[in-house]
């Protein structure tokens, strides 16, 4: 029976049941249980079906959220799934890892009226998991063969989203990646308690079955230059992401025990994938751990350290809770699991010896006048230093692009002053004809949902270019 909508005044907001902190903090399984059908329909029925859907406009993919919420409430689940996946290459992944509190849910009209947002992310995850269970996720069907091929460098969300769209258009697609599994940070960067790896693997398996070729363990610049890839394919897309960790610039930052966040997370994820135990240097077991940073990567690190049975885990962030860039929901999960947050605190030195860190000397901070971006600048409070014990210090300060012209052996590849690839805003083409770029390597470190959006847009841009190129070649032949 169809549910009526606009139930937000009588039905309270509810998320899927969360596993108790003591139980979940000892494993890497996802922390939320699944919605049951009735609960998903009930929560979807809270949608106000407002005339201007701010949830949709604040979603980078502009997902048609009100309509698939209505269909879910009415029990039209297969139709709801079909509509959700029409604009999103990986809805079950976005439902799990998007910071909905900053995007769709954070702009929900009923949230602004004090009734609590619709649980959009949980319903999105429910719909797609149900679709996989019921067989509604159709195989990838290639379009009519165009006789043209595309090479994509990077098997992360931007590259995979572009590969899917281009294959649907009839292009032969080869995806190159230096890792031994497809998925990029979805596999190696994001821990299993946020995104279990079989969720990603079934997506990449669908692409492979649809005829997309994956060349894994293949490093462009080592196994082939960009120029050689350009000769193999009619078009090339660079979707490599940004992997160069920003460094700690304090005395003692080179000590043993100071590790980059991504190296730490990759080691943990590899262990969970069955690739062998984490080496002691990257294992937090029994150690006092300090994580420096306030973004989602920092939250991934602190919660991973808890699961590795660290003696204590502390997060240092130089601004206050209200100004941290990471998801507020993730901070709440971390606090429940035993992480201590030191707000308005910044490292001044790593103490101990070069062969082993022993602690962190930190400064208390206050927020001063806004900087050029409008954010208040943190200022040190003189004489308010404090000490933390730490045998492991994880630097989670963000990521910058690698030196791609050098890495790819492509001197003609132009970059911005931030090191990201310079592209034409409309064509998404780089300074090298026929070579396009998308995702974090253009945008800078950002969200998975933006990478998916950029990958889909890049596929459309490449299609326009390749269609025109093929037409010009045909005319020349005549």
UniProtKB/TrEMBL annotation:
Keywords: 4Fe-4S, Iron, Iron-sulfur, Metal-binding, Oxidoreductase. One of its GO terms (molecular function) is oxidoreductase activity. Residues 25-135 form the Dihydroprymidine dehydrogenase domain. SUPFAM superfamilies: alpha-helical ferredoxin, Nucleotide-binding domain. The keyword Cytoplasm does not apply. NCBIfam families: gltD_gamma_fam (TIGR01318). This is Glutamate synthase, small subunit. It comes from Phenylobacterium zucineum (strain HLK1). The gene is gltD.
